[in-house]
UniProtKB/TrEMBL annotation:
One GO molecular-function entry: DNA-binding transcription factor activity
Organism annotation: Strongyloides stercoralis (Threadworm)
Protein family membership: Belongs to the nuclear hormone receptor family.
Pfam families named among the record's database cross-references: Hormone_recep, zf-C4
Designated name of the protein: NR LBD domain-containing protein
Length: 780
C-alpha cells in the first residue's frame, strides 16, 4: 500500500524546529527521530538532568534533557516497527508500510539488557577462525557517532577519574565480572568460548571511553584511531584486575578463559584443547611463553601492588591517550589528550596527599607507568604470535585483521617449513646469486634458504637431518666466554679501530673491546674515588655521567659541525667509544660493582643501547637548534638534520645507501618526536637523567635474567632512588606536585625502549634485504 505525501511547512512537535513535513502521522524532525531510534536500539536508561521531569524542549537549546525529550517522543506517538522508526519526512521517497498494519509497542525507561553475543556465530574451518567482524564494527561506529558522554548527567560534579571509575564498573557488569567467587578452575580450554568472551569485551569497551566528556566530543576519526590502539592493552589490564580478585589455590599462573573459568598454564600437558585445528598443542605451546610473560610482569604486579579503583582508572586513561596513538590524530585531539593527562595527574596527586596521606609516591607511580610498558610489550608479542601462527599454518585469526610489525617472520616460517619437510631446492636461474628484494611476489627458494642460513637462522629443540646441510647452532657457554676474554689485551690505547666493509657487511673485531669491558667488570670496587662512598646513588651516577661525557667529548655542543653527508664509519666509531667507556658509568655505582661478573654482563648487554640513546639525546638538546628540527649525531663533532641529509657510502653503493636511510628515517623521526623533543621541552636536571639511567640499569625485564641476589639489590636500589628524587623535588625544587613530570619522565624510558626495539628490527631487515649487515653489534 502506497501513501500519498503532502509537502507542507510545519514545526517539529518535539523540539519546535521548522521542517518540511511529508506525513501528518508524526510531525517530527530528522534529529529527534534519530535520537529516538538510538535510544531504543542502545537500550539507554535515561535520567532527567534537572530532576524535575518537566524540562522545556525548545529549538534554541543546544543541549536537550534526554529524559524529557525521550518522553515527549513517546507521547507524540513515535513507534518502532522492525527496528525502523515510524517517522516520515522529506528524505523518505520509497513506499512505506501502511499505518493500519503497524502495531504500537509500549516503551518504558526500564529497558531489558541486550544480549551482546547474539547473532555472531563462530566458525573454525581449515585452521581459520571466521566470524562477522562487521557487526562489532557497526556497533562501535554507532556508539562513537554520538558526541554526548554516557555520563552527561554526572558531568557537573564528577572528576575525570571518577567518571572512568563508573565506566569501569559498568564494563565489569557488562562482562559479568562481578562474581569472582564463582570462577572455577578447568582443564578444558573451549576456544569458541574464549573468542566469544573477547568479542563481548569489544562490544562493551567503547562505552567505557564514552564515559569521558573529553573523549565524546572528539571527531569520529580520532575516536577510531584511539580505540584501535587502545582495546588490546585495555583487555590485558582489565582481565588482570579481575584475575586478582579470583581466589584459587594456585593463582600465580592462572589464565582467564571466560568470565567464569580459568586454567593453570603450568599444567599445559594436562589441558584438553577444544579447538578445530590440526595441531592444538602446537598453538598453545606457541602462546605459552607470552602468557608466562604476562603472568610474571603484569598479573604479578597487579596482584602485589593491589591498585585501587582510582589508580586503575588512571592507567586506563594513560593507555587511551598514549602519545604514539595521539601522534596519528588531529592537533585538537593531541591538545585534549595532553590536558587530560595533566588533569588526571593533578587529581591523583590530590588523592595521594589529601586522602591517602602519602607525600612520597615516586616509587608507586613509577611502577604504575612501567606497568604500561609491560602491557604494551605483551600486546605486541601477542600480535606477532598471531602472525607467526598463520604462517606456520597452525591457526589463522581472520577476524583480527592485523598487519604484522616484523616482516622477517615470513622468512622464518619459510625456513622452518624447508627444514621440517626436508626440502631440496635448486636455484631457479642457476646462478645461486639471486637478489632477494622487497616487492617481488616470487623468491628463488634456493637463494632465499641460503640467505636464511647466512643471517643465522636456526631451529631450537629440533633434530632434523637436512639434505641442505643446515647446522643447528647451540648457544655459547657464557662462563667460557668470560674466561677467554680475560686473556685478551685490555689497554684502550691499543684497541683496533680498523673498520672494513666487504660485500655490504661491516667487519669489525669486537673481541678487544669485549676484553677491555670484561677487565673493568672483574673489579669489585667503584671506578671513582674513595670519597664517593659518602655520595648517594644518584650522586654517584651523576659523577659517572660527567666522566663518560668527558670521554665521549660531549662537553662542547657549540663546536659541532652541521653536515648533509652521513658516514657509516663515524656512527660505528661513536658506538665503539660508547661501548668502551660506558662500563665505567655502571661501575660508578657501589651496588653494581659488587655484583657477579655474569650479572654485570647481562645488565650491560641490555643497558648500552638504551643508555646511548638517552646520553646522546641529552647532548643533542644542548646543540643550538632554533628551528627545532630533528637532529642526529654522526659522531661527537658532526651532526645532521634528519630531513636534510644524505647517507652515501662508496663501499656500500649509492642506491643501497639511500635505501638504508629511507628504511631508517621513520624510526629516526620517532626518536626525534618522542625522545629528543621531550628531553628539550622538559629540560631535565642532571639528577633526573641519573634517575633514568638507574631505571635502565635495573630494568625488571633485565633483572629477571639475573641471579636472585641481583634482583633483590635492584629492587632496593629503585626504592632508594625514588626516595632521593622525592627529596630533591620537595626540598630543593619546592615542587610538591610532581606526578605529571615524573610520569612523563618514566614514559621517556618506554619510548627509548620502543626505538631500541625498532632499531634492532630494522638491522635484521636490512641484513635480510642485503642492504647492510651490522651483525658485529650483536657480538657484545
Amino acid at each position: 500500500n502506497f501513501i500519498i505525501f503532502n509537502m507542507s511547512e510545519s514545526n517539529c512537535v518535539i523540539c519546535n524546529v521548522k521542517i518540511n513535513i511529508i506525513n501528518k502521522n508524526v510531525k517530527a524532525c530528522r534529529a529527534c527521530s534519530a535520537f529516538f531510534k538510538r535510544s531504543i536500539r542502545s537500550y539507554q536508561n535515561l535520567k532527567c538532568r534537572r530532576g524535575t521531569k518537566k524540562c522545556v524542549i525548545n529549538s534554541g537549546n543546544t543541549i536537550f534533557c534526554k529524559y524529557c525529550r525521550f518522553q515527549k517522543c513517546i507521547k507524540s506517538g513515535m513507534t518502532v516497527t522492525n527496528n525502523n522508526v515510524k517517522i516520515y519526512n522529506k528524505y523518505i521517497t520509497s513506499a512505506l508500510t501502511s499505518e493500519n498494519n503497524v502495531k504500537k509497542r509500549n516503551v518504558t525507561l526500564e529497558l531489558p539488557k541486550k544480549n551482546v553475543t547474539e547473532g555472531n556465530e563462530l566458525v573454525i574451518k581449515e585452521n581459520k577462525v571466521f566470524f562477522d567482524i562487521n557487526k562489532i564494527t557497526l556497533n562501535i561506529n554507532e556508539i562513537f557517532s554520538s558526541t554526548n558522554s554516557l555520563l552527561s548527567n554526572y558531568d557537573s560534579y564528577t572528576t575525570t577519574l571518577q567518571r572512568m571509575i563508573i565506566g569501569i564498573k559498568n564494563l565489569f557488569t557488562c562482562m559479568n565480572f562481578n562474581k569472582p567467587e564463582n570462577v572455577t578452575l578447568t582443564k578444558i580450554v573451549d576456544f569458541k568460548k574464549f573468542i566469544s568472551f573477547w568479542q563481548n569485551f569489544l562490544k562493551c569497551l567503547p562505552n567505557l571511553l564514552m564515559t569521558l566528556e573529553e573523549f565524546a566530543i572528539l571527531s569520529f576519526k580520532d575516536k577510531r584511531i584511539i580505540f584501535s590502539n587502545f582495546w588490546r592493552q585495555a583487555f590485558a589490564l582489565l582481565k588482570g584486575i579481575y584475575l586478582t580478585k579470583i581466589i584459587i589455590s594456585n593463582n600465580e599462573s592462572i589464565l582467564l578463559i571466560n568470565e567464569c573459568q580459568v586454567i593453570d598454564i603450568t599444567e599445559s600437558d594436562l589441558l584438553e584443547l577444544e579447538v578445530d585445528v590440526d595441531k592444538p598443542k602446537e598453538v598453545f605451546s606457541l602462546l605459552l611463553p607470552t602468557l608466562e610473560f604476562y603472568n610474571k610482569f603484569v598479573f604479578k604486579q597487579l596482584k602485589t601492588e593491589d591498585y585501587e579503583d582510582i589508580e586503575i582508572a588512571y592507567l586506563i586513561i594513560q593507555i587511551a591517550f598514549d602519545k604514539l596513538s595521539l601522534n596519528e590524530t588531529s592537533p585538537e585531539c593531541k591538545r585534549t589528550g595532553r590536558e587530560i593527562l595533566r588533569s588526571i595527574n593533578d587529581e591523583l596527586h590530590r588523592y595521594y596527599v589529601n586522602i591517602k596521606k602519602v607525600d612520597n609516591y615516586v616509587y608507586r607511580i613509577t611502577e604504575m607507568t612501567n606497568l604500561l610498558f609491560y602491557i604494551n610489550e605483551f600486546s605486541n608479542r601477542f600480535k606477532q604470535i598471531n602472525f607467526m601462527s598463520k604462517f606456520l599454518d597452525l591457526i589463522d585469526f581472520v577476524m583480527l585483521k592485523q598487519i604484522p610489525s616484523i616482516i622477517v617472520l615470513t622468512h622464518a616460517a619459510f625456513f622452518r617449513r624447508a627444514i621440517t619437510n626436508h626440502k631440496n631446492f635448486r636455484c631457479r636461474r642457476g646462478t645461486n646469486r639471486c637478489i632477494i628484494k622487497p616487492g617481488d611476489k616470487l623468491f628463488c627458494k634456493y637463494c632465499r634458504f641460503k640467505k636464511c642460513k647466512e643471517v643465522g637462522m636456526v631451529l631450537k629443540n629440533e633434530n632434523v637431518n637436512n639434505s641442505n646441510d643446515c647446522k643447528l647452532q647451540s648457544q655459547p657457554n657464557e662462563e667460557v666466554e668470560i674466561k677467554n676474554l680475560e686473556s685478551q689485551n685490555n689497554n684502550t690505547a691499543h684497541l683496533n679501530n680498523d673498520i672494513k666493509i666487504e660485500d655490504n657487511k661491516v667487519l669489525f673485531d669486537m673481541k678487544q673491546i669485549n676484553s677491555y669491558v670484561n677487565q673493568i667488570f672483574l673489579k669489585t670496587e667503584t671506578s671513582t674515588s674513595h670519597n664517593d662512598k659518602y655520595f648517594t646513588c644518584l650522586q654517584q651516577i651523576m659523577k659517572g655521567i660527567n666522566h663518560l661525557n668527558n670521554n665521549l667529548n660531549y662537553n662542547h655542543p657549540e663546536n659541532v659541525i652541521f653536515t648533509k653527508h652521513i658516514e657509516l664509519k663515524r656512527f660505528i666509531k661513536l658506538w665503539q667509544k660508547f661501548i668502551t667507556f660506558s662500563p665505567s658509568l655502571l661501575m660508578a655505582l657501589n651496588e653494581f660493582a659488587t655484583l657477579t661478573i655474569k650479572d654485570k654482563w647481562i645488565i650491560f648487554r641490555d643497558f648500552w643501547r638504551n643508555a646511548f640513546i638517552l646520553i646522546t639525546g641529552t647532548y643533542i638538546t644542548k646543540i643550538c637548534n632554533p628551528c627545532n628540527e630533528g637532529l642526529l649525531l654522526n659522531d661527537e663533532i658532526y651532526v645532521f638534520k634528519i630531513n636534510d641529509a644524505e647517507f652515501i657510502d662508496n663501499e656500500i653503493g649509492e642506491k643501497k645507501s639511500k635505501e638504508v636511510f629511507s628504511l631508517m628515517k621513520p624510526t629516526l623521526m620517532l626518536l626525534h618526536e618522542f625522545v629528543h623533543k621531550p628531553l628539550k621541552d622538559e629540560n631535565y636536571d642532571n639528577i633526573e637523567i641519573a634517575y633514568l639511567i638507574v631505571q635502565i640499569i635495573f630494568d625488571k625485564l633485565t633483572l629477571h635474567k639475573t641471579s636472585n641476589e641481583c634482583q633483590k639489590i635492584g629492587d632496593e636500589i629503585l626504592k632508594v632512588i625514588s626516595d632521593e628524587i622525592h627529596n630533591y623535588y620537595v626540598y630543593n625544587k619546592k615542587m610538591y606536585n610532581y606526578a605529571f613530570r615524573l610520569t612523563e619522565m618514566t614514559k621517556l624510558l618506554l619510548f627509548i625502549k620502543e626505538y631500541s626495539t625498532r632499531e634492532k628490527e630494522i638491522t635484521t631487515i636490512s641484513k635480510w634485504m642485503d642492504l647492510i649487515d651490522l651483525s658485529f653489534m650483536d657480538s657484545i
